[in-house]
Amino acid sequence: MQQPVPASPKTSSIAYLTKNYANYNYWANKTLVDWLRTKPADVLAREVPSSFPSIQKTMVHYWQTQCFWLGIMREGVQPAMEPYTGSLEDIFDAVVNQSREMAEYIGSLTDGEIERPTLVKNPWFECNFPNFEYVVQVMNHSTYHRGQVITIGRNLGFTDAPMTDYNYYNVYGK
């Protein structure tokens, strides 16, 4: 799979890692969605005991979280999250497209923009971290929930989940 914006070793180490991690997130989400598209839609919507009760609801959550953090990094604004009313296929497309958009945006940042702090104020917390910290936050969050999707899938009888580890991406996915 072609990366949306290749990370360049000519940037600082933190900028290279940040851009590579965003590209990894895109690759991992696309890999996961491609696998899920081979499964019956009714099974993917089935509820099981988990922090989010279905694969679809888990994906909606981490897609909305990625949208939140991209809004913070782009404009310093927090987009309003509306209740999700789309289909399973819609969330698949949204996750992949938003992950690509995020990778392209992060890939376009200069070293200074990646290291620049962005103030976040909301009802849950306040912080003023460098943008690369937010990238790590959102990518780790998505990785966590991809793991939940795999676990929910396992509970639904799926035994053929794809490998989406960061090292696997670095060795085989680029």
How would you describe this protein?
It is a single chain. The protein is mainly alpha-helical. The chain has a single domain, classed as dinb family like domain (Four Helix Bundle (Hemerythrin (Met), subunit A)). It is 62% helix and 6% strand. It has 7 helices and 2 strands. The chain has helices at 13-36, 41-44, 55-75, 88-108, 111-115, 131-155, 166-173; strands at residues 117-121, 126-130. Strands 1-2 form a two-stranded antiparallel ribbon. Strand 1 and strand 2 form a beta hairpin. Helix 1 (13-36) runs antiparallel to helix 4 (88-108), helix 1 (13-36) crosses helix 7 and helix 3 (55-75) runs antiparallel to helix 6 (131-155). The longest helix is centred in the C-terminal third of the chain and has 25 residues, at 131-155. The radius of gyration is 16 Å and the shape is globular. It starts with 12 loop residues before the first helix and ends with a helix. 33% of the residues are buried. The mean pLDDT is 92.
The CATH homologous superfamily is termed dinb family like domain
Could you describe the largest sheet, including whether it forms a barrel? 2 strands, antiparallel
Instruction: Classify the fold: give the CATH topology.
Output: Four Helix Bundle (Hemerythrin (Met), subunit A)
CATH-derived architecture:
Up-down Bundle
Strand order of the largest sheet: 1-2
| General form | globular
Q: How many β-strand runs?
A: 2
Share of helix, binned: 55-70%
- Class of secondary structure makeup: mainly alpha
Contiguous helical run count = 7
